[in-house]
Amino acid sequence: MTRTGRPRSTAADAAILRAARELLVERGVGGASIEEIARRAEVSKVTVYRRWSSREALLAAAVESSAEGLPGRTHREADPAELDPDMTYDQMTALIESALPQAARTLATPGYRALLAQAFGSRFTHPGVMAAYWDNHILPRRRVALPVLRRAVTEGHLPPGTDVEALLDMTVGALLYRLLQPGDITPEEMLDHLRRVYRQAGLLRS
User: How far apart are CA 23 and CA 25, in angstroms?
Assistant: First the structure.
């Protein structure tokens, strides 16, 4: 049976995520309550809970929603189906290459860097937020990337015996290390950093 009723408001989705991002940056995880998010978004708490089952899930989605332009990101939440575990090495490197300019602009944005800092800083004070972000947004992409990298080793694109899990960890770690450093970074500087990291990891052709 087809369900009928009021269609979900994308405007409300956007307002809730925007309010959550703003409060995370301004007040941290502790100050980003459902009540405050609903008040700033000018919606009811019921409207928020219809979309996200918990504060942790909402805050994780808020961090993710700020990452538009990065590979595999959608407007609202991660969609790992956008990344194909059966893609070839050439397709993977082409995807990375095409995504880098927009990714650099996104990663260089002070607001995005602040959100990442809040998310990772919540690991011990509010572990549920980091757990939701990890389970819903990081692990799904990791599960897609690993078989592609293993196939790249088998086909000779990466050195024999490459530990692809360590390679992925080091690549992401190098990006986070730069993002969490003090001081501003321009999109041009970020693009140069991305190219050097991915090239060193063997994930860019040139």
Answer: 5
